[in-house]
Specification:
Elements (H helix, E strand, L loop, with lengths): L13 E5 L7 H11 L3 E6 L3 H10 L4 E3 L2 H7 L4 E4 L6 H10 L3 E4 L7 H14 L3 E3 L7 H11 L6 E9 L12 H4 L6 H12 L4 E9 L17 E8 L4 E7 L10 E5 L2 E5 L3 E8 L2 E8 L7 H10 L9 H20 L3 E2 L4
Parallel strand pairs: 1-2, 1-4, 2-3, 4-5, 5-6, 7-10
Antiparallel strand pairs: 7-11, 8-9, 8-15, 9-10, 11-12, 12-13, 13-14
Helix pairs in contact: 4-5, 5-10, 8-10
Length: 346
């Protein structure tokens, strides 16, 4: 998204959040990030009166509202971050944009490609900014991987293998509901895809999805609405590269590491604290490793501020945020149809 100039200084940007739920203290996390970036925090909306009281205790003087509609009617906030269950992101974001507000959603952006399209249409008709909280775009491990892989340490990328597995029953809460959360891929899968798409430069061509569901489902309170036991996606790109993405709650022998990037001259392992490269050099195989370096996740809200001040292009655009959702959505649709699907958004 191109630069726009709507405010003179960061403190002119009045902000609020919808959702101050206790999970991971994300409401406070976002308001702290907005404050650090120099914006003025003004309002919180939550349907739980106790969470509104918690917000007022954390941020004395902040306005509190019992619904998004009440906030939009009574507060003049310019920018709203939506921090609610995944299946509510699209509806709330569109409601806010139709009220003329700039919007950020927590990740995942939404739970379907159609929802992403509707959100982008609302952005365009209201001429507002729309982004999603891919602050992990600046995690230390992906910043380190990009720098080293782009320097040629493993040659040209052939494929990425992204995976997270264990053997456990999902916790009985809304993230274990497919209808609410989107499915097993919609938490860390959104991050792993965002990481991978930073490294893979080709245009997405097709998605093949495979899923198993029903083993854990009967033993949870979500019953038939339980997330998948396992989901696997194979994504093909027009330059010949491909991405494998696996999430499993039925893996008794999980593979170590998070992302493994295979290249023509070696493999690069991306993990939270260390990196390891298995390189093929003229002298023979060489193993290199080291720390990943510091994260710079503060740059998300700093980029939002600079964009609204007309100083920078928006990094996490709605179109960028739609790509991980498109892969996860097409994975489920492909698995249900038992066939490969052509990508709508490359």
């Amino acid at each position: 998204m191109k630069k726009c100039s709507l405010f003179r200084k960061a403190s002119d940007i009045k902000t609020g959040v919808i959702g101050y739920g206790p999970s991971f203290m994300m409401g406070k996390h976002h308001l702290d990030g907005m404050t650090e970036a120099g914006m003025r925090i003004c309002a919180v909306a939550d349907i739980d009166v106790e969470r509104c009281k918690a917000a007022a205790a954390d941020f004395p003087g902040i306005e509190t509202y019992s619904s998004a509609a009440e906030m939009l009617a009574k507060s003049d906030v310019d920018l709203i971050t939506v921090i609610t269950p995944h299946n509510t992101h699209a509806e709330l974001a569109i409601q806010c944009m139709d009220a003329g507000r700039h919007v950020i959603t927590e990740k995942p952006f939404a739970i379907s490609t159609d929802e992403c399209d509707a959100m982008i249409a609302a952005r365009d008709r209201n001429k507002v900014m729309l982004s999603t909280y891919h602050n992990r775009h600046w995690d230390g491990w992906i910043l380190n991987a990009r720098q080293k892989i782009e320097s040629g340490i493993i040659g040209d990328i052939i494929r990425i293998d992204a995976h997270l597995g264990s053997y456990h029953k999902p916790k009985d809460w809304w993230r274990s509901s497919k209808t609410i959360s989107g499915g097993i891929m919609y938490d860390w899968g959104a991050h792993f895809l965002e990481y991978s798409l930073q490294l893979l430069k080709g245009r997405m061509v097709e998605v093949s999805g495979f899923m198993h569901q029903g083993f854990w489902g009967p033993s949870t309170c979500w019953k038939k609405d339980c997330i998948e036991d396992e989901a696997f996606s194979l994504v093909r790109f027009d330059d010949g590269t491909y991405l494998k993405l696996l999430f499993s709650n039925l893996d008794s022998n999980p593979k170590p590491g998070w992302l493994e990037v295979c290249g023509t001259a070696g493999n690069f392992m991306i993990q939270p604290n260390t990196w390891t490269a298995y390189c093929q050099e003229s002298s023979g195989p060489v193993v290199k490793d080291g720390p990943v370096g510091d994260s710079e996740t503060f740059r998300f809200y700093q980029n939002i501020v600079n964009h609204l001040l007309g100083k920078e292009d928006l990094v996490i655009t709605a179109e960028w945020a739609r790509r991980p959702i498109h892969v996860m959505d097409w994975t489920a649709r492909s698995a249900a149809a038992n066939r490969t699907l052509q990508a709508k958004y490359p």
